[in-house]
Design brief:
Length: 307
């Protein structure tokens, strides 16, 4: 009964309302972006950006600026850099692997600069906040910024979804038909960077990859129809965000970032039990929409078929 009372009390507090509003839009953007990240086999990019998020935030704090400036500038800049270095606008895994360890070390350097040059009770917790998130610590202004940024990311991604899907499924044919494949690749990784910077506030840089990959991975396993999968990925991400925040309110000792990722992991794990049953009905989900695009054919992104 005491736990229920604590939960009711938390759910009625402004900090929970801010977290729920910001978390909903952040999860929506992460679900949409993450679906294409998985579909384009660029999940490793999300891992690299998690390191950049920490380093960018620490650099901003060390220079005396708001950490969100460092998050967005660092993540978007890194996304564009990786896309530019990688061939045809796709980030190369070798490039990412060679860079992200050094970037994380640079973040530790900036954290040391910040802690040695500043004083106060919040200095020691700055690194922890960036690493593990602080969604229950958002105020009204921060919530508004999070909502607007996440809504803009979602709107832009939906605007370019069809050509981006075509370029993802069959890059050669898309290029031959006039689709700006490289520009789309650059723009998409810029959106990934912006989403990474925004999502860091919810789950932290260490768990950022899970919020981008787990709902999308579950959606890819459950359906081979691209736009159905895109909607499912977004819906799962939002539902997991709500479940995690509610669970954290119900159990105050449970960090919200852990609860969110526990819900996302549980859903993804459940797909391994669901997909065999779907296969028994004559479908074989889990192959992904890429399986329907064959070289030399014109894919129909909306229906997931090849003509």
């Amino acid at each position: 009964m005491r736990t229920d009372q604590l939960a009711v009390s938390a759910w009625s507090q402004p900090f929970f309302h801010h977290a729920l509003l910001a978390g909903t839009f952040i999860a929506l953007a992460a679900g949409l972006v993450g679906y294409f990240l998985v579909l384009r086999a660029q999940v490793f990019t999300g891992d690299a950006l998690s390191h950049v998020a920490f380093t960018g935030a620490m650099a901003a704090l060390a220079a005396g600026y708001d950490l969100r400036i460092g998050l967005f500038v660092g993540c978007v800049g890194a996304g564009l850099l990786l896309a530019g270095i990688g061939r045809a606008g796709r980030a190369d895994d070798v490039v990412i692997g060679a860079a992200f360890a050094w970037i994380l070390g640079l973040g530790a350097f900036f954290l040391t600069l910040y802690t040695t040059s500043r004083s106060g009770s919040m200095v020691g917790g700055a690194g922890t906040t960036v690493l593990f998130g602080s969604i229950f610590g958002l105020n009204g202004d921060q919530t508004l910024v999070a909502v607007l940024v996440a809504a803009a990311i979602s709107a832009v991604l939906l605007l370019i979804a069809r050509p981006l899907l075509f370029a993802t499924l069959d890059e050669s044919v898309a290029g031959a038909r006039g689709v700006p494949v490289r520009v789309l690749g650059l723009g998409f990784l810029a959106l990934v960077g912006a989403c990474a910077g925004e999502a860091t506030q919810a789950v932290g840089s260490l768990l950022l990859l899970g919020l981008l990959a787990a709902p999308a991975g579950a959606a890819v396993r459950l359906t081979d129809r691209p736009f159905h999968g895109l909607a499912l990925s977004a819906g799962l991400a939002v539902g997991e965000m709500w479940a995690g925040l509610s669970l954290s309110a119900l159990i105050p000792s449970l960090p919200p970032s852990f609860a969110i990722m526990a819900a996302a992991t549980a859903v993804y794990g459940a797909t391994f039990a669901i997909t065999p049953a779907l296969r028994g009905r004559g479908r074989a989900p889990g192959t992904g929409p890429r399986a329907v695009a064959r070289p030399g054919t014109a894919a129909d992104p909306a229906e997931g078929t090849a003509a």
